[in-house]
Amino acid sequence: MTLVGGGGVILHIEKGRTGIAPIDDLLIDELPSPLTIGIFGPPGTGKTILCRQFLCEALRNGQTGVYIALDDFPEGVRELIARSGFELEAFERKGRFFILDCYSSQVGRRSSEKYFEDPRNLSNLSIAVSGVLQQGKPGAVMVILDSLTTLIQKCGVTESLGFLHILIAKIRSQRAGCIIKFNSAAFNPAVAAAVQDIVDGVIETKAEETPVGVNYCLRILKMRGTRHLTTWNPYIIDPKLGLLKNWLRV
Amino acid sequence: MTLVGGGGVILHIEKGRTGIAPIDDLLIDELPSPLTIGIFGPPGTGKTILCRQFLCEALRNGQTGVYIALDDFPEGVRELIARSGFELEAFERKGRFFILDCYSSQVGRRSSEKYFEDPRNLSNLSIAVSGVLQQGKPGAVMVILDSLTTLIQKCGVTESLGFLHILIAKIRSQRAGCIIKFNSAAFNPAVAAAVQDIVDGVIETKAEETPVGVNYCLRILKMRGTRHLTTWNPYIIDPKLGLLKNWLRV
Amino acid sequence: MTLVGGGGVILHIEKGRTGIAPIDDLLIDELPSPLTIGIFGPPGTGKTILCRQFLCEALRNGQTGVYIALDDFPEGVRELIARSGFELEAFERKGRFFILDCYSSQVGRRSSEKYFEDPRNLSNLSIAVSGVLQQGKPGAVMVILDSLTTLIQKCGVTESLGFLHILIAKIRSQRAGCIIKFNSAAFNPAVAAAVQDIVDGVIETKAEETPVGVNYCLRILKMRGTRHLTTWNPYIIDPKLGLLKNWLRV
Amino acid sequence: MTLVGGGGVILHIEKGRTGIAPIDDLLIDELPSPLTIGIFGPPGTGKTILCRQFLCEALRNGQTGVYIALDDFPEGVRELIARSGFELEAFERKGRFFILDCYSSQVGRRSSEKYFEDPRNLSNLSIAVSGVLQQGKPGAVMVILDSLTTLIQKCGVTESLGFLHILIAKIRSQRAGCIIKFNSAAFNPAVAAAVQDIVDGVIETKAEETPVGVNYCLRILKMRGTRHLTTWNPYIIDPKLGLLKNWLRV
Amino acid sequence: MTLVGGGGVILHIEKGRTGIAPIDDLLIDELPSPLTIGIFGPPGTGKTILCRQFLCEALRNGQTGVYIALDDFPEGVRELIARSGFELEAFERKGRFFILDCYSSQVGRRSSEKYFEDPRNLSNLSIAVSGVLQQGKPGAVMVILDSLTTLIQKCGVTESLGFLHILIAKIRSQRAGCIIKFNSAAFNPAVAAAVQDIVDGVIETKAEETPVGVNYCLRILKMRGTRHLTTWNPYIIDPKLGLLKNWLRV
Amino acid sequence: MTLVGGGGVILHIEKGRTGIAPIDDLLIDELPSPLTIGIFGPPGTGKTILCRQFLCEALRNGQTGVYIALDDFPEGVRELIARSGFELEAFERKGRFFILDCYSSQVGRRSSEKYFEDPRNLSNLSIAVSGVLQQGKPGAVMVILDSLTTLIQKCGVTESLGFLHILIAKIRSQRAGCIIKFNSAAFNPAVAAAVQDIVDGVIETKAEETPVGVNYCLRILKMRGTRHLTTWNPYIIDPKLGLLKNWLRV
């Protein structure tokens, strides 16, 4: 495939594969093995659904999935995944998917998961993450942090950035991949810029108001060691199918 | 009904039903059963009246109503509902409507309601909510929080977001619905964005200044698991009839 | 009278009566009995004079007036009223007008009023207001708070909003009316939005710069249970006659 | 003189007299006897020179002058006045002019003035002001506060606004006049708006950048009990003659 | 020379002399003897080089120079001056130039200067300044403060403004001149406005982005007791020759 | 080579050499020997890659390299360098390259480097820097600080600026060069302006959004003692080759 990139350079594109069309469109090189990628955008742009897509692709590719759930009960996470038609149960049976339940503790409900933790205790959370990370093979684990937003609300910016530094160092040590969800509108822009500096890759989502409704777009702001296009790529959100190409706008 | 959505997709619309015309206009799928929906907008855009409409529709559909009143005396809440012509009394007699009076305590007046609490004590408030939630059947309760604004003013942002996390977890446990009123102009925009991340659905209201007066519009920013239009829908505010379609502008 | 409202609706207007022309112009329904109304605007737009008009109209209509004076000596308040030609003395003799002097204490001057208090002690102030409120009959008292601005400067935002919640609850208990003066430029806009949420009605004033000088306008942002126009209505300020219609601009 | 005011009203103007042409141009009624007037503007717009003009006019009209000097040594103040050609010495001899030296104490230099105080001790400063105020006859004293800016820098916003409330109450008790210099660019705009609420009159200065240099203008934002024009009036700054009409722009 | 000033006034210009062409262009009257002048601008506009020019002109005119060095080692200051070709050594030998070394102490390096101080101890710094000031004759000393920016970073805004008040009072007592370098982009604009109020004269620099690179301009915002033009005057920066007229733009 | 500079001056350019084309394009004079240069820009503009280029050029020119690594494990730094094809190993063997590992300590992992430190202890870090600096010859060391961003996040703005003052003083004492990476979007702009004041040279990067993707540009904001162009110079980022001229845009 032949495209004209920013600055007019003619590029021959050999696609890397995330399995997510609006992102794969933008990659020139293959993604290097495990990266820590942040998903940044305002509420209502499908960030949670994008996390689900990264997770399901990783499971399909033989990796072990770890979902750090700060924003919903484990059954809510399972419903979210089920809504896409993905059959999670087999993966759970084979020890290929774990939820680190950081939500139940907030209502004083006893978690029925194997891994659970109170997110306000960042030291314990750090230890719990180490424990669950060791359930997968190095180089074959995908961690979803849903969401960094809630962590920062509960623990403050400084402490959470400190935890994030440590989390990413651990994930790098294990050569695991990681997807971090971040509501960029909930904080001063400098907080997002600080997080963007810490992660290896940044995917931004935005919603543009138009007379006929909202138009969703994403772009790759940076991706360590990988050439990529830098355009905004329009997409549509389908609660079942995930983020899809918006063909009418390409 | 056939509409052209944002991005030009042709949609065949099968309406879900909230019974509130300016909102139903925007829904493509039916609303999944209980959701936590935030109503965000500046003062004077009819948010309180919209809460009343959600409540009355829920009562008409056989649900139990719970009104967490932080902004007025219980008689003020009853007057507000009576102004719409809705006959509340029968519902109260049958145990189908309760007010959790969080207002009287503020003037040291003894509440004459069965349920009352001082909103500054968030732990007690949390317990009181649990108590009143159990008056309805799971899956058939509608909670109105009027308003989160006042809660944040009395208890601070961090504490109130913490309480909100817990409140929503409890409501999800009971499979109840919830409407949360929020004055988005009274805080830094990041506070609204933070709340929008926590709730399942977001309805935004706005007031546009025009030479002939204010034009009111609402839109659905997000609605978990549901396809919806993303346009701004104009409406008019009638103190008795509620939010109505603004036919002249459709 | 027939007008075309915002959104093009044709309205037949039956005026409610505040006796203040630039406001009455904007009311469709009559004002429901006692309301708490905030007057919001920047310095130099006649807010103090508007308070005076509300007070004098209430006295003329047989109500008892209570002036909570934080910004001037009682003699300054009396001069302000005298400047309009209104004969206050008879009302004071008959116990139909009281000043709650919250100013003299600030210079350590002994107040010669029956009611006085140091505004920095919000608990005492709250008790003093209760005392003076009982001088009038329920449903027939008009309280002027001049000004909330000064209260917030002396006691802080959080404490003052807490006091305001209590003040309004007391006023509602007594079915009294209340006018609250607020310099919206002296604080972060979120503070004004927070106050606007607490009161029943909001009148906004503004000053537009034009090549031939300032043009003053007011509008009704919200008015509980009452239909109203939402346009900006131009007025002129006369130190003696009060806020008058600006006929040249209607 | 006949002018067309803002909003097109034809006004017959009978000038009040401050003796300062760019201000007198804007007054419709005479200034009522003693007022507290704030001069608000950014650095470099001649505020200090305007203070000097108010002071000299007051002295010429038989009033006693009090200069609260926070920004320069007494000799600097005397030089400033001398630069205009005004003969201050006779006034000082007859006890018609006093400097309250609040500057020397800052360098630990012993003041050679009769009245001096350390401005960081607001209680003492308040007492010192009372003392010097009593040197003039009630109704015939003009106080210059040069500057409120420095006071706020030394004592903080809250404390200084508290002091200002007290200062103005004392000045009103004595029926004295007062001119307050305020650098509106040195603080959040809300601080200026707060001060503007406390004083009786507000004169604003501004500097507009044009291709041929800066154009200076002033306007009257408010003036208690007095009708005035609300246009911006251009002026030029002469270090000797003071603020003069900018005839080329009228 | 005849120029048309802002507002169209025709001025006959008798230049004062700073010896710095882009500034002398703007002066109408001669500069009165010693003034405290602040140089305000963003990084990269030649402020340090402008300080050097003021210093060298003062030395050439027979004054004693005092350099308060907070941003570089004394050898760095000497290099900066040497780069202009100015022979400093003779002046140092004759006791006509001193560096108050406030930099070495920051790295725990023993200063080899006669005068040195730790800038974090503002009381000692104040005493040290007094000491070095007395090395010159009253009316014939030029002090360079390089920079106020660093002082504020080390000691905070409030403390540094307090120190600046004292420094300027001392300098006025000695009838010395003073140049103060201030990075106006490193703080809230209100901090610059506060400093501008304290000094006698203000020179502003700015950098305008143009398609062919940056265009540098300066203007005189205020200059006590002196008439001056108020236009922006373009200049170029030469590391050796200093700030020069940008003839192409005049 | 002959170019027309900002302001239209015709310049004969004798290039200094950093070996980095998009920067060398902008230099008129040769860079004076060791400078402290800050690289300022938002995430995703190739700042890390630019640091790598400065380092490799210094090593090629016979200097000793010191990498203060706060953002990745030493192996991550080595991978980054290896990706460019540069053979680091020989340099490490000959004692010509050192990593000061400030990352491993954050995950409690024992560093396998000779030099390591916990960056939160700024005193120790300062001592460690002194130690590693002495491994190279004065005038022949290049220090990379990757990144100041992380340092500020861990230690706060005030403490980090204090450390930076000391670091630069030490580097100047050793006549070493230094490259400082700074994410200018992660803090208030005033923080960047403060840092820009402290360093000798400033290179800014930016990313402009265009319809066909992002266009990267850099410029030299200041460079002590060196004439330079001030235009924005477009470049492209290649993960292997570094920052390259964007020929299509020159």
Give a brief description.
Six copies of one chain form a homohexamer. By secondary structure, chain A is of the alpha/beta class. The first copy, chain A, has helices at 21-24, 47-60, 74-82, 89-93, 122-133, 148-155, 157-173, 189-198; strands at residues 2-4, 10-12, 36-41, 64-69, 97-101, 115-116, 141-146, 177-183, 201-210, 213-223, 233-238, 242-245.
Kindly estimate the percentage of residues of chain A that lie in beta strands according to DSSP: 25-35%
The low-pLDDT segments of chain A are 1-15
- Class inferred from helices and paired strands of chain A: alpha/beta
Instruction: Give the termini separation of chain A.
Output: 15 Å
Radius of gyration of chain A (Å) = 18 Å
Oligomeric state, counting identical vs distinct chains: homohexamer
Order of helices and strands of chain A: EEHEHEHHEEHEHHEHEEEE
Q: State the strand order across the main sheet of chain A.
A: 6-5-4-7-8-3-9-10-11-12
